[in-house]
Amino acid sequence: MSMGRKLRTLLREKKFITSMGIDTPVHAKIVEKAGFDFAYLGGYDVSLALLGLPDVGLITETEMVATARNVARAVDIPVVCDADTGYGNAINVLRTVQDFEEAGVAAIHIEDQVSPKRCGHVAGKMIVPLEEAAGKLRAALDARKDKDFVIIARTDAVAATGGGLDEAIRRGKEYARIGCDMVFCEFPSADLEYPKRFAQEMHKAYPGYPLYFNYSSNLKWHEFPLTTFEALADMGYKAMHVSQACLRPSMQAVWDYAVDLKARGAQAEIDLEKRLIGHPMGAHHEFAGIPKFKELEARYLPADEVAKRYDGAVGL
Q: What is the dihedral of CA 168, 172, 174, 176, to 10 degrees?
């Protein structure tokens, strides 16, 4: 079963599926082991982790595809990947789709921003004309070799210059009409009236059509604590992720440890080691797969070479 088919099966069989925004294969492995249905590889996540730069259209197609390929190889769950604006016009999109599909991901989303784009929750966004956006998405649909590869159309019209909710609804309906598998609309706040109305209008035109939701960290959900994944699913959002859900806690943890190590020296490391005893992430060699590679060495390498490597050796 292809990963695209696997994702479609999950969407069909479950009321909704959730994930965490990831940036590296190690975070993808954590997400998988924690029991999530899929992994979401975000553009902001990769731009900040790989380049140390914000999501303002600086990450390239080559960099994103390379990261996506490594992530897809690391896990056995579907990977949904941010493909920004498709990295050019409709002709560029043809290659973009083929490259991501060959990388082994299950789905990509392509947005209707002007290039160079920026994070959907940063001011200054502009959108291309609907005809241009639709042409790029039609190219994406035609470019895939596996028809189960999922094409998600994203609109940033709600908060973009010259846009608004009505424009986002108009675009969402058009993207559904031309055959996109899902529609993903970015919303400017945690106020549920916008996503509720968007879903209602989409489903008036296309009953049961699957919608994607970004539970973005920028929306200050702590001010709307009753907004649950279940509530969004009741509106018709079938898939959703928490943006930068791996990067933000990792940055916080590393910052806190760096400050502690600088202040207390070796004692900070000793205390960290104690906290990791018995923790799932404490045995990092096992998590990385060292035992598996030892089994492969025993299976494929000459027995005398394996003996030389491990007889009297120290370590796992």
A: 180
What is the CB neighbour count within 10 angstroms for residue 76? 8
Q: Is the dihedral of CA 181, 185, 190, 196 positive or negative?
A: negative
Radius of gyration of the CA atoms of the chain, in A:
22
What is the C-alpha separation between 262 and 57, in angstroms, rounded?
Answer: 35
In contact, 178 and 152? CB cutoff 8 Å: no
How many residues in total does the chain contain? 316
* Active-site annotation holder among 119, 180, 185, 246: 119
Please give the distance of CA 88 from its chain centroid, rounded to a whole number. Answer: 21
What CA–CA distance (Å, rounded) separates 74 from 292? 14
Q: Is the dihedral of CA 193, 38, 32, 6 positive or negative?
A: positive
Look up 180 and say whether it is catalytic: no
- Alpha-helical (H) ranges within 35-153 are 43-46, 61-74, 90-103, 130-143
Q: Is the pLDDT of residue 223 over 80?
A: no
Which of 28-32, 178-182, 272-276, 290-294 is predicted least confidently?
A: 290-294
- The helix or strand, by DSSP H or E, that contains position 109, with its residue range, turns out to be strand 107-111
The one-letter amino acid at 41: L
d(CA 30, CA 6): 19
Q: Is the distance from CB of 101 to CB of 55 less than 8 angstroms? A: no
Distance (Å, rounded) from C-alpha 126 to C-alpha 109? 17
CA torsion, ordered 67, 16, 112, 175, to nearest 10 deg: 130
Please tell me the pTM assigned to this model.
0.93
CB-based contact 112:185 (threshold 8 Å):
no
Say what the pLDDT of residue 120 is: 80
